[in-house]
């Protein structure tokens, strides 16, 4: 049986950031990834937005980590020359009835310590983006976009340079508590058993499945995960805006917003489609519902200009109609197994806070390290 100090399950952006954090602290680290490459799930199927943190309930882990995560991620991207742009974002009230909701977002941002957020009257917003339909807006200067693949490459490179190893096609199929840590059963072409002192379940969409496979965890302490599929469509032609544009948020999501990739192409999404299984097909017909939503803030959207792009699935701890839930970082106190940490419901702003969340989790596990951002 292999004996390893730290095992990170899942090579998404959070798992890679945590492996980097641990390896830079001098820990022995192995990353187990069920797929044949890193970042194939939620980490690579999102809007690639660097969030500022204005939406999250005060005191939640999301709210506490996001402003620092925003700053830290920009520092890391600058130091490592990872593609990114601090383009800013407009949150738009397209009708007078939405102004009150915009004021609530402004108050939440202030409570969360979000910097560089400016209230704009309609004419001020139109001076920045003349094609908008807008009666008022919040301008978040610190919101931006990032090359998520380049970010994950840099995180993995740091981890490997400090001794970490990643093993692909190695799904964790079971496990149990042992005297010296957690014993894991690993499938794949060459099944094996691993005894690890510390195990970090960062498996994203499969995190609940992995947790349920660890014998000895009471089933009732593992909450259900709900799959919220988000479909994206690209715009044929030039982007109408130079900044990201978000409507006032909707239930379970932030509405059909416009984001930009680093090449300047506009894309719209995600919507919210509750699904039971993982499927990344994009139905061209779903674009029909996008047109009306987008035209509330961009009336000039031409007919037939949206093309299917890609889809992502968010692992949510809340189901349809439920209020938003925070990340769940579950240690021994939550499930009874020493050395095991389940990271559940890691959706947005997981990309933004990957470095600060990694540092926080390592500290909770008693493995702190002041790893530099650069």
What is the CATH superfamily classification of the largest domain? FAD/NAD(P)-binding domain
Strand content: 25-35%
State the share of residues found in helices, binned by percent. 25-40%
Through-space gap between termini: 36 Å
Radius of gyration using CA atoms only:
21 Å
Major pleated sheet: 9 strands, mixed
Residue runs with pLDDT of under 50 for 5 or more positions:
none
Classification by helices and strands:
alpha/beta
Counted up, domains total: 2
Count the helices. How many?
9
Question: Whole-number average pLDDT?
Answer: 95
The CATH class of the largest domain is Alpha Beta
Order of SSEs, N→C? EHEEHEEHEHEEHEEEEHEEEEEEHEEHEH
List its salient traits.
374 residues, alpha/beta, FAD/NAD(P)-binding domain, D-Amino Acid Oxidase, Chain A, domain 2, 2 domains, 9-stranded mixed sheet, 5-stranded antiparallel sheet, 9 helices, 21 strands, 28% strand, elongated
In summary, what is this structure?
The chain is α/β, with parallel strands linked by helices. It is 26% helix and 28% strand. α1 runs parallel beside α5, α1 crosses α9 and α2 crosses α9.
């Amino acid at each position: 049986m292999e004996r390893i100090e730290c095992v990170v399950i899942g090579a998404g952006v959070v798992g890679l950031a945590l492996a980097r954090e641990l390896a830079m602290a001098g820990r022995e680290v192995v990353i187990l990834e069920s797929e044949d490459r890193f970042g194939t799930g939620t980490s690579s199927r999102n809007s690639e937005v660097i969030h500022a943190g204005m939406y999250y309930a005060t005191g939640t882990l999301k709210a506490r980590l996001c402003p620092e995560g925003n700053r830290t991620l920009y520092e890391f991207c600058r130091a490592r020359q990872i593609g990114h742009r601090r383009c800013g974002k407009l949150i738009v009230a397209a009708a007078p009835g939405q102004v009150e909701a915009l004021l609530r977002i402004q108050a939440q941002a202030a409570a969360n310590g979000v910097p560089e957020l400016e209230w704009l009257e309609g004419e001020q917003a139109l001076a920045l983006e003349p094609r908008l339909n807008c009666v008022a807006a919040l301008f978040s200067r610190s919101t931006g976009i990032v090359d998520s693949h380049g970010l994950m490459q840099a995180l993995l490179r740091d981890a490997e340079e400090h001794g970490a190893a990643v093993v692909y096609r190695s799904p964790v199929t079971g496990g149990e508590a042992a005297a010296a840590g957690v014993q894991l059963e690993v499938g794949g072409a060459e099944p094996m058993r691993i005894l690890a002192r510390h195990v970090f379940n960062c498996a994203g969409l499969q995190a609940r499945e992995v947790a349920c496979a660890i014998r000895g965890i009471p089933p009732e302490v593992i909450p259900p995960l709900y799959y919220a599929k988000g479909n994206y469509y690209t715009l044929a032609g030039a982007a109408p805006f130079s900044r990201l544009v978000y409507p006032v948020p909707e239930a379970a999501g932030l509405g059909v917003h416009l984001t930009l990739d680093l090449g300047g192409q506009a894309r719209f999404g995600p919507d919210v489609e509750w699904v039971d299984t993982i499927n990344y097909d994009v139905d061209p017909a779903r674009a029909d519902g996008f047109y009306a939503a987008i035209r509330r803030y961009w009336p000039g959207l031409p007919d037939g200009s949206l093309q299917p792009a890609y889809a992502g699935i968010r692992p949510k701890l809340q189901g349809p109609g439920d209020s938003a839930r925070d990340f769940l970082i579950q240690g021994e106190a939550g499930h009874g197994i020493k050395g095991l940490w389940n990271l559940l419901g890691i959706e947005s702003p997981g990309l933004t806070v990957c470095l600060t969340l990694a540092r926080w989790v390592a500290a909770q596990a008693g493995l702190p390290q002041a790893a530099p951002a650069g």
